[in-house]
C-alpha cells in the first residue's frame, strides 16, 4: 500500500482546484483513502491522515469519522501523535458527544507524564474544551500541578483551574490552598495567570472576595514595580513593561476595591501614578489608561481622582485613533449618570463626534448627547442634534427623533421654541417618527393655547410643501380641523400671518383624502378635520358634498365616518356645533395622552371614531328626540340626562313626572336613559365636575349662587365657561346637607326652556353626607345659542330619615354673566 | 475571556478557528459565516470594534488576513488589539516574515503557537521569548523522538 499523500502535498493539490466541484471531488477521493487507511489501523501514518482531515474540516467538509482516530493518537507514545491528536480533539470533539469522555483517562495519564510538554498538551486541552464531567474527574490533578514549582506548568494549571471553576463552580474551594503564594512568583506568566484565577474566584464568590482583599497591598506593590522598573526586554511593549499583566492587575483591583473604603484608599496612589505616568502615544499605553479609568470610576475613589479619570476620557475623545474615541464614548456613557458635571465639561467634544464617520461612534455620541441635555444647554444642543437628525442614517432617525421630543418636553425654554422644534423634526424626519408621538404632539399643541394660530399656520405651510410624511400630515390635519378658523382669519401674532381662504384650506384637506401617499389613518384624520371645519367655516355646502361622497367609500373606516357625519348634517344638525366644538385642554395621563379623556363621554354615542383621534364631546341623542316628538312643541326641552347605571328605569319615570308638573301633555314613557358605560372612570368626574378643565380662559368673574336651600339641603351653582365656545355654560351643582341624618338616593334633575339645550352629567354620588361633611357634585352644561336669559326648573328627590322627600323649584337668579 | 478567534482571508476563506466555548459544528459554521460577512463589509475608516450579539468583536487586518476575536463585555478591547498583535509577532518570528501562505500550509503550527500563547481564552504567557522557546523545545522533542524511534524523519511525518 503506497504511503498516503503528505499533508502539504494535499494542500497544494486542493488549492489548484478551479471550481468548487473539482475541490469536492479531490476531497472525496482523499477522504476515501483516509478512511481505508484508518480501517487498516495504520499506526505510522495515522497522524498524517488526521492532519489532512483537519485541513479538510477547516474547508468545511465533514470529518467526524476521524474522532476516534484522534483518541488513538492521544493514547500513542509519540509526541507528534499526541500533538496532532490533542489538536484534533480540540477541533473535532466537543463535550456534547460521549466520545470525548474516552479522553479522560489519557489526559489523566498525560497530566502525570514525565515530559512537561506532554503535560502541557493535556492541560491545554482540558482548559479549552473540558466538559464538566472531565473537570470533576481531573480537578485533583490540576490542583496538584498548581502547586508545582515548574512555572511552565504552573501557569497552565492556573488557567486550567479557571476553566474548571467556570464549568463546575462548586470545585472552587479546592483550589483555595494552592493560591496561597501565587503572587510571590517572579515569573510573569505565572503572575498573569494567577491574577486571572484570583479574578475569577472573586467574581464568583463574595467570601473569596473578602478573603482576597488582603492581597491589595501585594498587588499594588507588583504594579508599582512594573511601572518603576527599568527597561525589561523580555516584557517590553513600546516602552511599557508587561502591559497585559498591568491591565489584569488593574482589573482585579477594581473588583477588590469596589464598595470597600480601605482597599480603595490603599490603591489610590498607584492609580494616580499610573494615570499620570503612562505613555499615551501608542495603543498599549491607552489600553492601560482605559483600564485605570474603569477602575477609578468603579471603586470609592476620591473626587480628584475621578476628575482625573474623566479628563483622561476627554483627552481620548480628541485622539486621532478612532478606537480610542470609541472606547472613550462608551466609558463616558457609563459614567454620565454618576459624574454628570465632569462629563458636561466635555460636551462640545462629544457633540463633534456626532459628525464622525464611524457608525458606532455616531450612535454613542448621540446617546451621550441626549444624556447631557439640560435646561442650560438645551438651545445649543438641540441645534446640533437637529442638524444630526437631518444628516444621519435612517437607522438612527427614529431614536434621534424620540430623543429630541423627550428632551424638548423636559427642557423647552418656551412654547414657541417647543413647537418650532417639533415642526423641524416632523418636516425632516417625519416618516421615522414613532406612532405614539402623534397623539402626544396633538396634546402638546392643544395645551399651548396661545400658540394655536402660529402652529396651525406653520403646519399648513408644511403641508403645502410635502404631504408624504404621515405623522406630519396627521398632526397638521388635526390642527387645521381644530383651528382652521384662526388660520383663515389671519390671527397669527408670532409671524407674518398668511392669507388663505376657506376654499384653499379645504382644497388641501381634500387633496389628502385623494392622494396615494395618504394612509387610511391619515384619510380618517383629514375627513374628520373637514367635518370639524363645518362649524368654523362658512362653506358648509362644500363640506356636506365631500362628506356625502365618502359615504360610499370602499374604505370601511372612512365610510362609517362619512355616514355618521352625514347623519349629523341631516337629522342632528342642531347638535353639530356642540359636537364639533373646540377640544378642551387635555390632562396628561400616565399611559396615553388625549385618548383617555374623550372615550368616556364619546362612548355614549355610537361613534366608531378611532381611539387615536379624539372624538368631540358628544351627547346621547336618542332620548331627547323621542321626547320632543312625544311632547310636540312645548316650551320646555326635556333633560337629557346621563344617570348612574343603577337606576335607568326610574329616571325615565321621574322625567315624565317633571314634565307633567310643568303642565305639559303627558306622553308615553320615554326610552330609558342611554346606558352609560359601566366602568365610569373616576377621571371623568374628577376632570369635569370637581376640577373644571375649561377654566383658563373665561372662567373668572362669574360669581357662584345658591339655587336652592330648604330643609337643610342647600344647592349651590358655580359657573365656568366652556372654552372656547362662549355659548356653553358649565354649571357645577354642589349639594350639601346640614341636618344630622344623611340624605340617600339623592337625585337632581333639571329642565330648561326650549331655546336652550341642557346636558346633565353623572353625579359624584347619590348620598349627601350629614352635617355638611361632604358634597355631591354634578355638572350641567347649558347651550345658550340665542343668548336668552337662563331659567331652570329643578326637581330634587331623596330619602331622609326613612321617608322619601321630593321638591320642585325654579331657579331664576342666574347672574347675567352666565348667559350673556 | 475570549470566546473565539477566527482568521480569514479577504475572500472570506477560513484559515484558522479557535473556539473556547462549546458549540455545535452547525452553530460554529453559522457564526463564522455571519461574522465574516459583517467584518468584510466594514470600511477601512471604521473602528476596530463592533458589537455583535452580546459580545464585543475586535478585529484587525494584517496584509491579506483578518484576525477577529470575540470578547466578553468586561474585557478590555484595547488590550485585545495588543493580544492580536502579539500573536502576529509570534507567527512572524517563528516563520520569518510570515505571510498568509505560511499559515495555510502550516496551519497545525499556527495552532501550536496559539496554544502556547493563549489557554481557555486568556493569555498564559506574556513574554514573547518564552512562548517561542517553548515551541522550539516542543519541535525539538518531536524531532528527537522520531530519530530515536527510527521512524520517518521529522519533515516527512506529516
TrEMBL record, chain A:
<keyword id="KW-0968">Cytoplasmic vesicle</keyword>
<keyword id="KW-0472">Membrane</keyword>
<feature type="domain" description="GAE">
    <location>
        <begin position="700"/>
        <end position="815"/>
    </location>
</feature>
<protein>
    <recommendedName>
        <fullName>AP-1 complex subunit gamma</fullName>
    </recommendedName>
</protein>
<dbReference type="GO" id="GO:0006886">
    <property type="term" value="P:intracellular protein transport"/>
</dbReference>
<dbReference type="InterPro" id="IPR002553">
    <property type="entry name" value="Clathrin/coatomer_adapt-like_N"/>
</dbReference>
<dbReference type="InterPro" id="IPR013041">
    <property type="entry name" value="Clathrin_app_Ig-like_sf"/>
</dbReference>
<keyword id="KW-0333">Golgi apparatus</keyword>
<feature type="region of interest" description="Disordered">
    <location>
        <begin position="591"/>
        <end position="617"/>
    </location>
</feature>
<dbReference type="InterPro" id="IPR016024">
    <property type="entry name" value="ARM-type_fold"/>
</dbReference>
<dbReference type="Pfam" id="PF01602">
    <property type="entry name" value="Adaptin_N"/>
</dbReference>
<dbReference type="InterPro" id="IPR050840">
    <property type="entry name" value="Adaptor_Complx_Large_Subunit"/>
</dbReference>
<keyword id="KW-0653">Protein transport</keyword>
<dbReference type="Pfam" id="PF02883">
    <property type="entry name" value="Alpha_adaptinC2"/>
</dbReference>
<feature type="compositionally biased region" description="Polar residues">
    <location>
        <begin position="591"/>
        <end position="602"/>
    </location>
</feature>
<dbReference type="GO" id="GO:0030121">
    <property type="term" value="C:AP-1 adaptor complex"/>
</dbReference>
<dbReference type="InterPro" id="IPR011989">
    <property type="entry name" value="ARM-like"/>
</dbReference>
<dbReference type="GO" id="GO:0016192">
    <property type="term" value="P:vesicle-mediated transport"/>
</dbReference>
<dbReference type="InterPro" id="IPR008152">
    <property type="entry name" value="Clathrin_a/b/g-adaptin_app_Ig"/>
</dbReference>
<dbReference type="InterPro" id="IPR008153">
    <property type="entry name" value="GAE_dom"/>
</dbReference>
<keyword id="KW-0813">Transport</keyword>
<dbReference type="InterPro" id="IPR017107">
    <property type="entry name" value="AP1_complex_gsu"/>
</dbReference>
UniProtKB/TrEMBL annotation, chain B:
<keyword id="KW-0333">Golgi apparatus</keyword>
<feature type="domain" description="AP complex mu/sigma subunit">
    <location>
        <begin position="1"/>
        <end position="141"/>
    </location>
</feature>
<dbReference type="InterPro" id="IPR000804">
    <property type="entry name" value="Clathrin_sm-chain_CS"/>
</dbReference>
<keyword id="KW-0472">Membrane</keyword>
<comment type="function">
    <text>Subunit of clathrin-associated adaptor protein complex 1 that plays a role in protein sorting in the late-Golgi/trans-Golgi network (TGN) and/or endosomes. The AP complexes mediate both the recruitment of clathrin to membranes and the recognition of sorting signals within the cytosolic tails of transmembrane cargo molecules.</text>
</comment>
<dbReference type="InterPro" id="IPR016635">
    <property type="entry name" value="AP_complex_ssu"/>
</dbReference>
<dbReference type="GO" id="GO:0030121">
    <property type="term" value="C:AP-1 adaptor complex"/>
</dbReference>
<keyword id="KW-0168">Coated pit</keyword>
<dbReference type="GO" id="GO:0035615">
    <property type="term" value="F:clathrin adaptor activity"/>
</dbReference>
<dbReference type="GO" id="GO:0006886">
    <property type="term" value="P:intracellular protein transport"/>
</dbReference>
<dbReference type="Pfam" id="PF01217">
    <property type="entry name" value="Clat_adaptor_s"/>
</dbReference>
<keyword id="KW-0968">Cytoplasmic vesicle</keyword>
<comment type="subunit">
    <text>Adaptor protein complex 1 (AP-1) is a heterotetramer composed of two large adaptins (gamma-type subunit AP1G1 and beta-type subunit AP1B1), a medium adaptin (mu-type subunit AP1M1 or AP1M2) and a small adaptin (sigma-type subunit AP1S1 or AP1S2 or AP1S3). Binds to MUC1.</text>
</comment>
<dbReference type="GO" id="GO:0005905">
    <property type="term" value="C:clathrin-coated pit"/>
</dbReference>
<dbReference type="InterPro" id="IPR022775">
    <property type="entry name" value="AP_mu_sigma_su"/>
</dbReference>
<comment type="similarity">
    <text>Belongs to the adaptor complexes small subunit family.</text>
</comment>
<keyword id="KW-0653">Protein transport</keyword>
<dbReference type="InterPro" id="IPR044733">
    <property type="entry name" value="AP1_sigma"/>
</dbReference>
<keyword id="KW-0813">Transport</keyword>
<protein>
    <recommendedName>
        <fullName>AP complex subunit sigma</fullName>
    </recommendedName>
</protein>
<dbReference type="InterPro" id="IPR011012">
    <property type="entry name" value="Longin-like_dom_sf"/>
</dbReference>
